[in-house]
Amino acid sequence: MKHSGEKLVAEILAKKKGGKDRKLLWKKLRNMGDFHYNIKRITEKKGHLIVERRPTTEKDSNEFLPCPHCLGFFVRSELWRHAKECPFRCQNNEEEKPLVYSAQILLYSNLHENSDLQENIEEILTGMKSDGVLKAIQSDNSLMSFGSAMLKRVGRGRLPNVRQKLRQLGRLLVSLRCLSTEAAVFTDFIKPKEFDRVVDAVKKISSNPSEITEKGCQKYSLPSLALKLGHSLKRLAEVIRGRAIRDGDDERRKDVENFILLHDTEWADKISSHARQTIAERKYNEPDILPLTCDIVKLKDFLLHEIVRLSELLLKDINAVNWRNLAMVVLCRITIFNKRRGGETSQMKLSAYVNRKTGEWKDAENLEIISTLSPIEKKLMDRLQLVEIVGKKNRKVPVLLTKDMWNALDLLNSKRNAIGVPLQNPFLFAAPSSKSGHLKCWDSLKWITNRVDLKNPELITTTNMRKYIATVSQIVDLDSKNELEWLANHMGHTLSVHRKYYRLQEQTLELAKVSKLLIAADCGMVHRYAGKTLDDITLEEIQLDKSEEEDCDEQDCSSSEECQERTPPKIKDSKQKQKEQKQSEKDTEYVCSNAKKCTRRPWKEEDKQALRTSFHQHFTLCCPPSKSDVMLQGRKSDRVRKLIEERGWTAVKYYVWNLVQQHKKRGQNMTNAKEQKN
Fold first, then answer.
1. What is the domain count for the chain?
2. pLDDT at 678
């Protein structure tokens, strides 16, 4: 064989002829050659690609991505289907979601020419802080390739995110160099034998060795950093593997693939699980503090007043400072009113606002829907305008504008040229004198809340405002799934995310609503509220404790002329005892209610015998049973449990006490009779 002397070919020839392993290795070798060929064709932008499955229709080369496992090229929409059955895929790797992301990183890291790489890196590093982390990034070519590939994938609109990822990896590289040599780079650590050292470095910069979680695991001071580094390290390893494939470095490629295998199998046990446990424990007993309603109302009044004042000031004196101040106030007003994420409203495009729907809703296709609306809803349609913008995960999310908002926005747009906003700036809330910058909602909100006399200004954030509207919406009866889904769609997330992360269980609702159910269950009265809602349970029907329970029974029974008192033993006169004795001998129970009429329900003989057997200790001690005693016997005896369900535990308690008194009286009579006889 011509290439039998090659190391990789020799390894394949050493396998059993016709065996499965040998066929798979030949396939991967062919895919590596095809990968080099396809990269060359895409770079030169001519020729045809060698793909694993030829599509039925002709497609552009941009529609194809390489499989991160076998390097074969597939149509982007079919890549997930192949990855499920790819023979080179690690069996323990169940991470399906970032498959396309991994394929793009692998492809882009091999497509960059040196000039393009240098241009992208200069753009990324220009805005970074000049320190030791920046020097570490500049000294590592693999980090710069990672940053360039990531920027090409996510676009320049997310340049700050790319810088953040690079600085996190730069901090890790600085920590690794403390454990190794000063000149080390990431290609020296993306190896199986260095995996444990990488784990130690991640722990060093994100955890405190002296602290442990409640379950005995290591506690992280920066758990989110540890989780992010785990994702970034795998992406970086894929970039290094792509360069190794392009350079024909089989030894380095194998080292990187084995490192990725270790990452998939051991990273969760050593880092991720502990970091997630730390995040979960931080939420225990942490109060869900939301903005105060009075602060929100006061802030709204302040914003309305400032919009009027700054609009008049801008008309009198047109300058960048007045324009910027008015833009910041309007930005906050829109964000707080719509409960939007700050980044969504601050990045609203000027074209989206200009092409907005201006209340002309009553066209022919909407007449059927509009006819079902109430008069106030139709009035709101005339008074509000709608702008559709891009939200999280490229969702289309709405922004509602009131008259004060769009009047201020029209004024701002009319003065853009006068204050020198570049024509190239596409943002509605553009940063003056910037071609691509925009105002930040967080900065604007912080600037405004510091100027208003609020009780808790630190709680006025966009995230807290979203949680506030999701929580207080529980007060409104959104019984229809569609109504709750409308609110979730307006906020730009799914219904499950709305319930899990945004709609908090306020302490007030916990105490007022859920506590009624718990008290009813504690009293053994849940069966009385079958088919009812929590609002149907009233405190008047629930016995809160023994003393209140006895007092209530006294008052209820005494209010009816036909009912006799049923109270625990007290010091009574002879007439009272005789009256009680006569009543107990009737062996009946009077069921009392707030109504004047009472119902008489006789006790059966088998019920009496069951009560005497179950409560024999109380007969011996001559004491009344408590609620816990009654409920305990109800769990032990089916007959007692049935009596509790039919009559209530209080009726059982007092009838047992009546039987105890009868037993005691009979014993006293027998004793007296013996004494008289003697």
1. 5
2. 63
